[in-house]
Amino acid sequence: MTVEAAEHALTASEYIVHHLGHLSTHHQTKIVDFSVLNVDTIFWSVFCGVVGCLFMFLAARKATSGVPGRFQAFVEMVVEMVEDQSKAIVHGDRTFIAPVALTVFVWVALMNSLDFLPVDLASSILGLFGLGEMHHRIVPTADLNGTLGIALGVLALMLYYSVKIKGAGGFIHELFAAPFGIWLAPFNLLLNIIEFAAKTVSLGMRLFGNMYAGELLFLLIALLGSTATAFGFIGHVIAGSIWAIFHILIVLLQAFIFMMLTLVYLGQAHEAH
Fold first, then answer.
1. Residue 135 contacts by C-beta under 8 Å, 6 or more apart in sequence?
2. What CA–CA distance (Å, rounded) separates 151 from 206?
3. Is there a contact between 270 and 158 (Cβ–Cβ < 8 Å)?
4. Are the CB atoms for 204 and 144 separated by under 8 Å?
5. Angstrom distance (rounded) from CA 215 to CA 217
6. Helix count and strand count (H, E) for the chain
């Protein structure tokens, strides 16, 4: 039994590759393949969205006009922070934009927080059902498909508010005339298309890069603990604790940055060149 376990033991590289794999509908063979669905990313994204909505619903239901409890005070701090930022950035009707920013912050923060779960938790649970070889990644924001999906939603809102505020004619005119005048219309159009694409890609890539790096570091620390030495065990505990504490800042900071950039991009859609 020991010999069989040793033969099937994963090397360090195989361990990392296994934990970075997705539970997908089928194997991806091309760089861009819209027929592949990462089921784990979809499930945990929806799960965090439902938890976030339930969290805010309970806060609104239990809100009182008297002295707030700790839960209500915490939610009010978050709402006030988002409201203040939206006031400073978006100069126009914020009836929909402020709630969107709050939703983005809470949703991304919850998805990022899944990175605090033990890296081997999913594999251990699947192993109980004889599915230990199945790939499963818990953190949706460590999947580029997930972050770019949210970024595409922000792009849709940017285009919507650009047309709503400036009108269809005004938006089209701005595409061809800004920033160098109508005489350079083809160059202006190309430049504006690149700007929209760059905003979308950078918004998704920034969140993905930070969360993917954090997940990879957790895997490396877990490998450190697998070494059968006192140094490996102590290093695993110390390094894991330090990185987990520091990662709290990263989780909240990345959610805040994503929310701020969403507000900035929607604020720019309200402004004319």
1. 18, 21, 22, 23, 24, 40
2. 11
3. no
4. yes
5. 5
6. 9, 0
How confident is residue 164, by pLDDT bands cut at 50, 70 and 90? Answer: very high
Length of the chain: 273
Q: How confident is the model at residue 228 (pLDDT cuts 50, 70, 90)?
A: low
Q: What is the mean pLDDT of the chain?
A: 87
Q: Identify whether the C-beta of residue 102 lies closer than 8 Å to the C-beta of residue 7.
A: no
| Tens-digit pLDDT profile for residues 109-128 | 999 999 988 877 777 777 77
Q: Classify burial at 203, counting beta carbons within 10 Å of its beta carbon; exposed 0-12, middle 13-18, buried 19 or more.
A: buried
**CB count in 10 Å sphere of residue 22:** 17
Active site residues per annotation: 202, 206, 210
